[in-house]
């Protein structure tokens, strides 16, 4: 059995190639050109610039690393502040201002005695630069001696510059000494701390009960007067708290 001749070319070694002398000549010429090329030494200005860059890198890289580490350590606090801002934005979004209307409005001020008062309302409507119409207004007033009064109604008109508040429909006034008064209307001079009404009023408190055609209250002077004819039932200071004496008030 004889082997058939193969058509594949026989491998050749490159180091025995016919053109090897030519390639070696090219390499030798390139080497000579490289040796003949003159290398220029860097100038003093270039060396100084490189030194400056190195010095800057020595300070900049550690500083950048410290900034990154500090940001990683402070990220929980930053995230907390971001969440707080988002919550504040959501709360502000609840206050819708449309054509002078506002929801959950709050007004604060000081009276003539530098006591705080605050007015809140479920909805408000601004009419001009001064008048504000209120729905479900509530007024919290600080009085002398760290006492306070709380007044609410169904409707109201707040005059910002005059610091007056006119309340209508189901006016309820409560003072921290236990005095509770109900009536259809009341006018408040917030600057002077005065509450007055010309409509009927029913009052209850430590003194007893009172039904009258109106009243005048000076919050800071501690003065409460009922006007017009009415009926007074006062608690008997010398008997049981349940006993009372009825008296007809003079007009």
Automatic annotation (TrEMBL):
InterPro entries: LipoPS_assembly_LptC-rel (IPR010664). The keyword Transmembrane helix applies. Pfam families: LptC. Residues 1-21, 228-251 are annotated as: Disordered. It comes from the Bacteria. Gene3D superfamilies: Lipopolysaccharide (LPS) transport protein A like domain (2.60.450.10). The keyword DNA repair does not apply. The chain crosses the membrane at residues 53-75. Keywords: Membrane, Transmembrane, Transmembrane helix. Residues 9-21 have a biased composition (Basic and acidic residues). This is LPS export ABC transporter periplasmic protein LptC.
